[in-house]
Amino acid sequence: MDNFTGGTCLVANEVIDKMIAYAATQVEGVAEVVGYDSNSGKLRHHYEKTLASEEENGHIWIALMIVVDRDYSVIDVVKEVQKSVKEEVESMLGLRCESIDVAVL
Length: 105
Known about the structure:
This protein is α+β, with helices and mostly antiparallel strands. The chain has helices at residues 13-25, 74-93; strands spanning 30-33, 36-37, 42-43, 51-56, 59-68, 96-104. Helices cover 31% and strands 31% of the residues.
């Protein structure tokens, strides 16, 4: 993260993971982000088994599981999820996405 004059900014991992899940749910064809309740905007208990992020020195590695609506191309949806998540994380947090691994269930 960027250095701030007179202090720092820390963002909780859970907040980052919610941002990731929300960005993925905005992609057309994503039926569900496993571990995330899109109606309430909350992460489910033990979500870290299906959605994870690791940040170090301004870089982030992301893994998440999604369910794709059967009327959509899995490859196209995954590419759009990666793009959406990357744009959200990099613009909101200033972190560089090193990888976004998407598992489809």
